[in-house]
Amino acid sequence: MESAVEGYRGPALDLLRRYGTKAGQYVEVLMSDGQTLRGLVIPRYQSADDRHIVLKLKSGYNVGLDVRTITSIKSLSGGTENASNDLSSSKNESEKTSLSGKSLLLISTGGTIASRVDYRSGAVFPALSAADLYSSVPELDKIARIEPEVVFSITSENMTPRDWSTLSSKIIDLASAKNPDGVVVMMGTDTLGYASAALSFSLLGFKFPVVIVGAQRSSDRPSSDAALNLRSAAFFAVESKKPGVFVAMHRNESDNEIAIHRGTRVRKNHTSRRDAFQSIDSHLIATVRDANQIQWRADQITPNIPVEYLLKTKFDSSVALVKFHPGFDPGVLDYLADQKQIKGIIVEGTGLGHVSDGVVSKIAQINKAGVFVGITSQCIWGHVDLFVYGPGRDLISAGGVPLENMFAETAFAKLSWVVGNFPGRTKELMLREFIGEFNARIPLSSKMSRSGSAQ
Amino acid sequence: MESAVEGYRGPALDLLRRYGTKAGQYVEVLMSDGQTLRGLVIPRYQSADDRHIVLKLKSGYNVGLDVRTITSIKSLSGGTENASNDLSSSKNESEKTSLSGKSLLLISTGGTIASRVDYRSGAVFPALSAADLYSSVPELDKIARIEPEVVFSITSENMTPRDWSTLSSKIIDLASAKNPDGVVVMMGTDTLGYASAALSFSLLGFKFPVVIVGAQRSSDRPSSDAALNLRSAAFFAVESKKPGVFVAMHRNESDNEIAIHRGTRVRKNHTSRRDAFQSIDSHLIATVRDANQIQWRADQITPNIPVEYLLKTKFDSSVALVKFHPGFDPGVLDYLADQKQIKGIIVEGTGLGHVSDGVVSKIAQINKAGVFVGITSQCIWGHVDLFVYGPGRDLISAGGVPLENMFAETAFAKLSWVVGNFPGRTKELMLREFIGEFNARIPLSSKMSRSGSAQ
User: Residue B22 forms beta bridges with which residues?
Assistant: First the structure.
């Protein structure tokens, strides 16, 4: 367990050693102001400062305690109401039976949520185990028996369409072998919105709920969202009985409600807030309160999809996403089409989907050469509509395919999937709705209806 | 005035001709249900249907009347309380003295707000005159004497950094000659956010308020926002006495309140809503109610800027904006740096500003070759922060310059301006705040303070 103090340095490490305490232990801390605090000692990032010890309180909150304000630390191992949280008394966590009788396949790919010390060191992350998890988020055992699997150990900005293929296949294989009640995928938040869209397509027809979850602030920081996100994702995965791909992240800045987003309609709209993820022009599927109550808000669209589209896990890398801007050089499209032999491009146009005349001409040229060009808007919200103005109609004549209100990130993931699995059918399938990627405001239990969107 | 019926075709044109009526006339329409409506006949887009006549009511709203429901039309020329709205009695509109005694330089560049019939025909837009304006928005004469100038007749998606230079110079020349109380620039909304940022830099030190205004729905459509946007922009321009560049657009979907945004902090976030424009991580400067009351909300930042930065109107086109995505091909950066000899690139990273390891390496390479690389986030809201994770620190080592919470569109416009006017000083000046392009939440009358953002 020596590695359990990894991340602590200097005065903080000295203090822990002085009292024979280590990360993962349940302790009582006497503060210099007379207050006592009980909680789990949580490991820290190696890059964190060396003057604080982080305690996970029973409330779920983490607090950083300045070592200069700590009078003494008492280990509560073996005693007290929280004995089960103490690692030293729970050597066989992974065999533990959950209180709920449910089982969860918990897949880790990397990212903030899976990192307790700097994951670039390689030391901690690959060692992710049931014991690690129970020590970070002890309440998990009330939700389900956890079957943890490490598929990748990468930051999400390094995740590629090829990785989406690997991840999809792994999820299918592992779930088939273990037959859990649900699946949770932990990943970095940076490209989580792209990946949730990708998996929504590659897991069409998959019988398990798949909930993708991340954290904006790592579990060794005060105000971390990791624990509640993970517990809520796990609860939704094993209790919802709702096949589909979802994203579970904080709904607002307070710490009791988690939003369950439709995998194809969710976007990271803030760099750092805990509620950075938003459903775009779309209701939430549900919210989860206190990691133990689901409130339904809208149905996932579960159309009857022909078997030819189910569990198709390939993603093609020869696709691109290009944002138009004033003075945009159409030569970029030439480069992608001619030099890189790209098969399809999603263009983020302005407003209703417009691009400059020069780009319209270039699109006509590469489209004639066989490159699919899908048009979305950098506005993010709203529908593209190329019939309002003359230049928009020119863009359609040039072969640009307006993609309604599918926003760029989802359109890109879908394009990679369509090109990867159904050669020669790109335009047809990009315009076909599979899993809520178009639209919008679907009221609860009005499956398959599309509200007012042109098609 | 024959061109004033342009846009009307088929049954609608027949009906207008039958009653000797034309666009621009004030009429009373008897409907088949016995109702009578009074208003101005508004020209239509050539691409609009041929079954409706559009009437501008005194309330400012436009209504489309089905010709099959119209019993008769009576011209009110020369009579009634609204005689001044009748074009036939106002040949000399441009010499009219405004009620307020103020004067407004009204510059048109094209776009929805300046178009009454399809502007690609070239027939209507270049003829924009004071008479045209008073006929579209008769209430303008209460606000100011209008000095109209047509600078361009282009859609905003075709506006380039070079056009920003031309427009900036024209504004300076025209305002110096006419010495108005304020300036309004009408343009298409698609790249209005980019242009408002651009002009915020090129017009530093300009003594007049410059308000950029557009419309999401053209003035011949019911629910057009053109009239209220224009009247409110004009009112703010001539009454605010506030040098700076602002954007005036609907604040919400109702039709009485206009938001005045800081030119460097405003983004088009919806493809079609009238309130598509939002201030990002920033207070509104003001709101304008009923086009006649200004409510102040935050100060424009008006730092003491050395004279070397004032009225520098060049924009360099050898800059680019690139959005990162999963599987992004670093070769795009090579193409821009090597083949196009670009001098600077704004990268839209994910989350806190991250990009893949391959892109980090490529950035190191082109940065060594002298290309500036500024890092923003595709999240739109929030600060980039490359110090939280290891890969972010690698990106900084590679020469990527994190641009705080300046979002990509503003960063791109600023880069074009910095490169155009101050060769060799790109990094220094990209990090220097000129006009509210960084930050955020500046309270009313706390000029120059920057709230909590790192710099």
Answer: none
Q: What is the mean pLDDT of residues A170-198?
A: 96
Give the active site residues of B.
112, 189-190, 268
The ipTM assigned to this model is: 0.79
- Residue A445 clears pLDDT 50, i.e. is over it: no
Q: Which top CATH class is B94-296? A: alpha beta
A416 or B215: which carries more pLDDT confidence?
A416
- Tens digits of residue pLDDT in A276-285: 999 999 989 9
* Predicted confidence (pLDDT) per residue in A161-181, tens digit: 999 999 999 999 999 999 999
Is the domain covering B311-430 a CATH 1.10.357.20 domain? Answer: no
CB-closest option in A194, A382, A384 to B325 = A194
Domain residue limits, chain B? 2-84, 94-296, 311-430
Select from A270, A320, A350 the Cβ nearest to the Cβ of B190: A350
Chain B residues with CB-CB distance to A351 below 8 A: 157, 188-190, 268, 271
More confident residue, A454 or A85: A85
d(CA B347, CA B325): 11
- Residue B423 burial by CB count (10 A; 0-12/13-18/19+): exposed, middle or buried? exposed
Residues of A in contact with B340 (CB under 8 A): 329, 331
Angle between helices B161-178 and B192-202 (to 10 degrees): 60
Q: Which CATH code, of 3.20.20.100, 3.30.565.10, 2.30.30.520, 2.160.10.10, is assigned to B2-84?
A: 2.30.30.520
Domains A93-296 and A314-430 are alike in CATH topology: yes
The answer to whether the CB atoms of A325 and B189 lie below 8 A apart is: no
Residue among B419, B336, B412 nearest B374 (CA): B412
Helices (H), A118-191: 130-136, 140-143, 161-178
CA atoms within 13 A on the CB side of B318: 15
For residue A30, give the 3-state DSSP assignment: strand
Contacts of A326 in chain B (CB under 8 A): 157, 159-161, 164, 191, 194-195, 412-413
Q: How far apart are CA A438 and CA A431, in angstroms?
A: 9
Active site residues of A: 112, 189-190, 268
Q: What are the chain A neighbours of B321 within 8 Å (beta carbons)?
A: 323, 325, 328
* pLDDT at A4 (0 to 100): 45
Question: Which of A155, A327, A385 lies nearest to residue B391, judging by beta carbons?
Answer: A155
Architecture of domain A93-296: 3-Layer(aba) Sandwich (3.40)
Q: Tell me if B148 sits within 8 A of B198, measured CB to CB.
A: no
Q: Is B63 helix (H, G, I), strand (E, B) or coil?
A: strand
* Selection from A245, A235, A268, A299 nearest residue A444 by Cα: A299
CB pairs under 8 A between A and B: 187
Mutate to test the interface with A, among B120, B162, B190, B249 (most CBs of A within 10 A): B190
* DSSP-derived 3-state class of residue B57: strand
CB contact under 8 Å between A271 and B353, yes or no, is yes
CA distances from B229 to B136, B191, B224 (A): 13, 17, 9
Q: pLDDT per residue over A251-287, tens digit each?
A: 998 888 999 999 999 999 999 999 999 999 998 999 9
Pick the CATH number of A314-430 from 1.10.10.60, 3.40.50.40, 3.40.30.10, 3.40.50.720: 3.40.50.40
Measure CA of the first residue to CA of the last residue in chain B; give whole Å: 59
What span, in angstroms and rounded, lies between the C-alpha atoms of B375 and A360? 28
Q: A326 and B270 in contact by Cβ < 8 A?
A: no
Where residue B216 falls (left for φ over 0; alpha for ψ -120 to 50; beta otherwise) is alpha
Spatial contact of A171 and A107, defined as CB atoms under 8 Å apart:
yes
DSSP H/E element including B177 = helix B161-178
